[in-house]
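Troubleshooting entry. Yesterday's outputs looked truncated, so today I'm pasting the complete records for two proteins to confirm everything comes through intact. If either block looks cut off, that's the bug. Protein one:
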Amino acid sequence: MTMFIYEYHDWPHFTYDSHKISGLLENCHVTQGRLLSKMELLGLSQREDKILENISSDVIKSSEIEGFLLNKEQVRSSIARRLGLQKQMTARIDRNVDAVVEMMLDATQNYEKPLTKDRLFSWHACLFPTGYSGMNKIEVAQYRSSGMQVVSGGMGMEKIHYEAPPASKVPEEMEAFLAWLNDESKNEDSLINSAVAHLWFVTLHPFEDGNGRIARTISDMMLCRSDHTNLRFYSMSNQISLDKKAYYDILEQTQHGSPDITEWLIWFLTCLQKALDLSFAETENVLKKYSFFQNLGAIQLNSRQRLMLEKLTDGTWFGVLNSSKWAKITKCSNDTALRDITDLIEKGLIEKEPTSGGRSTNYLLSDRYSFP
């Protein structure tokens, strides 16, 4: 019979093959440093936008992984209000959204504070402010009092993926977990601590619901400790959501295995590297776009031209640019679009695509202002 990881005699003494993860670990740390340095080059407004986007992504995607869809604008507005970014606010924020945001910001903005049982309970209350999960009343702000299984499939077709430790053991297990988490003398690498905290908490499954979201929140708090900043420059939950099946598969595989967590660490660090790489590329695009418009100097642009140049330089433009597409986006006539384009060609900002012509003429940024 397969044993769960917590049933081994040396639980929770985790082991791993340091040689297998050393390269991943080094790359993550290097990219962390490069990203933080790159962020320092951003202007205040750009940095605020980047932080707002990443915290929003963490909140939205972590909930989405569990099947809970949050309103993006409400999440952004709630975060903006709490961080004092008034320009980003909209009118109304649902109290459930506000509570989830409060949990995430407490974890990341106050990352240096110890994680206590009471603090965890307050996070859990933020996730379930009405005392219900969907239509089911649950135990809120307290450890579960009954067994916990992770199950999939319809009635009569259930598949048990995981069974958590008995409820009677949860208080003792959580006391050991929190003591480890708050022990500043532990010698492990900070990124390994984040991965271990994530796995350890979700393995204990101490609450009746919300364990995955709180596990990812704890992991984000540990990443803040690793970065030595409460400014979120990348989103781990966004990357996990892109590979959700693999995330659940590696958790199940690890929880059914021995305390050797090498494969979990490899997956976690690979996922983190992808999140860091994505954020680095996005930050470079922001900086290049800023440099592009700075280099325009005294060149005069109308509002339509500026709008289209911004679209061409924001790193998200796909397909070709032609006069009809220009007219549609800027809401002008085709003749006006063609005059705008011709003017930018004369100013050396865009040029005709060499392989196009006639009615199917396409345009792209000039090599002089090339932008990936």
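Protein two, checking that the full record survives here as well:
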Amino acid sequence: MPKQKKAKLVLGLTGGIGSGKSTVARMLKTKDSLLIDADRLAHDSFKIGSPVYKKVVAYFGERILKTNKCIDRSKLGRIAFVNKAALVKLNNIVHKALIADIRRLIKDSDKKIIILDAALIIETGLGRMVDKLLVVKADREQQILRSQKRLGLDRDEVLQRMKYQISQATKLRLADFIIDNRGLISETRKQVSEIRRMVWKS
């Protein structure tokens, strides 16, 4: 009789821009789990010559390209986040490819726990793929300052991007687990350890 595959549990990890979601993802990751970084997958989908690259350049034009023909994601973001129609178009292009890649990685993985690190789990419908939702919580001012530092955005650019994300309050209502990332890193790590203990044993 063929060996039955172990059931997988997909833990969706999300939070608003600058919440510290990526830091929590690194804390959660163990040798027994697979971490899927949606932002990294999206970044990789912009490779020169890829289907996403061709569609994005066809829509936005060569003004978004660097001298080496790579897409300037900062410039693309500045254009898209001030034009709702452009942002919808960009998201339609990227998210379709991204969802297909995530489905494939989950299907092909032999790990029992899959951690899906994605800012827009709820907004894009990725929530249908996850069994449990973990939301990282931070104060609004913390989010702004962290985003300015990590992404090199000015305050207005951060606020503009926040407008297109579901509110933290809504995400928290949908969460199975919450990480309060407003305090010391050691306090965040304790919360992560407790959630890992509960989820890894489920």
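Both blocks look complete. Sanity check on protein two: Strands lie at 9-15, 33-37, 113-117, 132-137, 177-180.
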